[in-house]
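Q: Given only this backbone (528 positions), what sequence would you predict?
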């Protein structure tokens, strides 16, 4: 497999992590909100929370939501299988669950056969635990990812598998979960023997990550991977593997930053001994993102507006407000970042340096604001509603950072003549189609700009961008693609292009699919 193919597969893997991560965010908000409202200190402070019926409802909602977090590895198994599979995604998802069961069953059998199955009283101390009623190694999300990858490979390789007539019933898609189970048993036999070395390797990496330079290093890597769509891989690596640390909470081990954070937030709370871990955990989480979404990006938006040409300011105001509100409310930063990343890479480097300095300051001040997204809602729930978060540090650091960002961007945009919104041509034309939700027209322009139907091999999307494989990248027309409303486009690898549309990208993707499949009654031939 050549480097280009490897790069594409890694990007596909990063996209596959989005589905389980997406469900974690709103469920996490419910957990955080209900968890805060049942805390004794909150009940004492707010009179209406003392109502028994209300408390029963809140506790029930918390417990129901906690079911999702108790089964995060299963979500990753299904998400990875769905995202990585090119053909029959349904059978891949089904097979991933079969694989997940078989994986832990096999590990249990190996541990029992080798005499390493720990007594229940001490199993958490040696990295073992109960998964779906099976005592096994605590490989957590990694186990789900392994199951998803095995199922994906099996689905793409064997979904049309033929068998001798006597076994014909088990051919085709029915063969996929069968061969998945076989592959899983083989993998499961090896995991207990290599797991200790794998954990040791990740733990050695955690030395640097968990040092005082960890937060700025983490946020810098995250932002640098944004253009390649690989930042989700880094965050998952930090949140769910020993690289993010192994934490002992209440006599039980929790692997990765997010697993430990969930335990402290939702099962312990302020005032407990476990809460002392919060600053060590949150320094890798949403509080760093909040510096971007709540402070720096609004400052950048203001700088862009003030540096726009006078004739474009009225038209560009709506664009910039959208670029600012999207991360403020939804944590989708790419539209703003891509508005200057590719035309002024050095400006993006400065942007990363500033947020890295800010993250270092937040950590040094003992800030303890969760959760995973960094929106205004995360700040309100996990900053204001919880005690001992030192949420005010975000303002102490964020306001000066916003001021520095504003003047730095305002000066450099003019000095380098950066073509940010409002400084190049008609600022209104690129936003009108998206603002009016004219997805059919956008799709026509996208297909035309990519060289027509015959030049398009495959179309997918992530949270903010179309990801398209082309036969010949030279046929792509930048001007046409930009006129469709795209806020950025680039080739992370040969014949593979990303076209950024922001949070409306899924609707654009569906419209493009309609054009490619000929489902539109008003369709015109856009092939060139």
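A: Predicted residues:
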């Amino acid at each position: 497999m050549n480097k280009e193919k490897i790069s594409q597969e890694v990007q596909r893997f990063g996209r596959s992590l989005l589905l389980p991560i997406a469900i974690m965010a709103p469920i996490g908000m419910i957990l955080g909100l209900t968890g805060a409202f049942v805390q004794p200190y909150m009940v004492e402070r707010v009179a209406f929370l003392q109502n028994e019926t209300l408390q029963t409802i809140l506790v029930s909602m918390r417990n129901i939501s906690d079911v999702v977090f108790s089964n995060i590895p299963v979500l990753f198994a299904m998400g990875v299988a769905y995202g990585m599979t090119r053909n029959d995604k349904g059978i891949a998802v089904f097979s991933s669950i079969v694989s997940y069961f078989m994986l832990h069953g096999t590990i249990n059998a190996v541990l029992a056969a080798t005499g390493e199955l720990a007594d229940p009283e001490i199993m958490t101390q040696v990295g073992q635990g109960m998964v779906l009623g099976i005592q096994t190694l605590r490989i957590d999300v990694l186990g789900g990812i392994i199951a998803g990858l095995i199922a994906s490979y099996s689905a793409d390789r064997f979904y049309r598998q033929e068998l001798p007539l006597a076994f014909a019933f088990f051919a085709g898609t029915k063969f996929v979960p069968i061969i998945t189970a076989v592959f899983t048993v083989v993998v499961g036999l090896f995991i207990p023997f290599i797991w200790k070395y794998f954990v040791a390797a990740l733990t050695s990496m955690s030395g640097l990550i968990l040092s005082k330079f960890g937060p700025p290093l983490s946020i810098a890597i995250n932002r640098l991977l944004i253009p390649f769509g690989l930042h989700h891989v880094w965050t998952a690596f930090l949140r769910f593997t020993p690289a993010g640390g192994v934490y002992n909470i209440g006599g039980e081990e929790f692997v990765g930053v997010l697993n430990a954070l969930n335990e402290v937030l939702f099962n312990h709370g302020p005032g407990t001994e476990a809460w002392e871990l919060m600053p060590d955990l949150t320094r890798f989480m949403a509080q760093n993102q909040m510096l971007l979404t709540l402070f720096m990006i609004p400052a950048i938006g203001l700088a862009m507006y003030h540096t726009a040409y006078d004739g474009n300011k009225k038209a560009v105001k709506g664009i910039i407000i959208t670029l600012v509100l999207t991360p403020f409310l939804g944590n989708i930063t790419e539209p703003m970042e891509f508005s200057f990343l590719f035309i002024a890479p050095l400006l993006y480097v400065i942007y990363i340096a500033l947020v890295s300095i800010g993250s270092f300051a937040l950590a040094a001040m003992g800030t303890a604001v969760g959760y995973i997204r960094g929106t205004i809602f995360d700040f309100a729930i996990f900053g204001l509603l919880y005690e001992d978060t030192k949420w005010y540090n975000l303002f102490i650091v964020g306001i000066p950072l916003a001021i520095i960002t504003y003047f730095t961007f305002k000066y450099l945009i003019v000095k380098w003549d950066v073509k940010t919104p409002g400084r190049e041509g008609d600022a209104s034309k690129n936003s009108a189609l998206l603002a009016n939700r004219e997805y059919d027209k956008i799709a026509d322009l996208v297909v035309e700009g990519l060289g027509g139907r015959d030049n398009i091999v495959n179309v997918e999307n992530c949270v903010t961008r179309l990801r398209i494989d082309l036969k010949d990248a030279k046929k792509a027309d930048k001007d046409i693609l930009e006129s469709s409303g795209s806020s950025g486009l680039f080739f992370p690898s040969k014949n593979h292009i990303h076209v950024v549309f922001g949070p409306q990208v899924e609707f654009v993707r569906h419209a493009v699919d309609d054009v490619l499949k000929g489902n539109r009654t008003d369709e015109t031939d856009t092939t060139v």
